[in-house]
Amino acid sequence: MGCCASKPETKKEQQHTKGDEKSGEKDRERMLKLGGILEQPTGDVRDYYKFGAVIGKGNFGIVHKVTNRKTGETFACKSISKRKMVCKDDVEDVKREVQVLMHLSGHPNIVKMYSAFEDNQYIHFVMECCEGGELFDRIAARGKFTERMAAEAMRSIVSVVNHCHHMNVVHRDLKPENFLMTTPGDDAVIKATDFGLSRFFKDGSFMEEIVGSPFYVAPEVLQRHYGKEADIWSCGVILYILLAGYPPFHADETQQIFKKIISKPLDLSSKPWPQISEAAKSCVRGMLARDPRKRLT
């Protein structure tokens, strides 16, 4: 997999300053006085679900397999540590993720959230359980996808993005790690997850905050003036990786990656691109057009 197997840190994974931590303590104390981050009583998640094995870990929390005590149904519970919410933005990201997931509910390729709970230490999201790992793991295991396999995966991914944009949501962190597989088999359904960096938007409005993961960030994001088209760029990077096994713009240091995203010509001539169809290369070119006005929609 080469560079695809490395994961430069995202906005969420960057360290906060001590000043942020002090501010975060005050934010947490204030939220608890107001009735919690979710701002409504939720009950104790363990009264409703029996916690099982750990099936995932991240910088902000942990994911357990849980069983509904009444029905016996299996779910995933994403528990986000309040101690990691060191500033107001972290709190707002969690609240927004709940809102976005509820807003986007019903799409077959978006992980369904069933309920949210809060206790003194964690925010808990009870979600459908996807036991096939990440799309990233599939790419790492195979090296790269055939054109047919890549097309099938991209149909699901683009369907998610189209639904998000139709519902006035921009994801802002599309990458193979944020797509889960429902089962270990080749017929698994792809499900989008982790909407913590997503935002609601209005057509014609622009965002300025630099967020996302370095390999997948659109050039206009780095220029702090972007809209929903940034998601299409990220899709183009995913398609490139699926077909080639490595990202189009890669380097050892984050700033070097950003420089290449801004100015390096797109390479569609090195291996394996001579063996890939012109139709597939045309799709990659269209998604990775540096001018968002010329990008595929």
TrEMBL record:
Question: GO molecular function, one example?
Answer: ATP binding
Keywords in UniProt for this one?
ATP-binding, Kinase, Nucleotide-binding, Serine/threonine-protein kinase, Transferase
Q: Which domain of life is it from?
A: Eukaryota
Q: Name one matching Pfam family.
A: Pkinase
Region listing for Disordered, in residue ranges? 1-27
Which parts of the sequence bind ATP? Answer: K88
Q: Which residue ranges have biased composition labelled Basic and acidic residues?
A: 8-27
Protein kinase domain residues are 49-297
Q: Which residues form the signal peptide?
A: none
Task: State the similarity comment.
Answer: Belongs to the protein kinase superfamily.
This one is known as Protein kinase domain-containing protein
Report the source organism. Chlamydomonas euryale
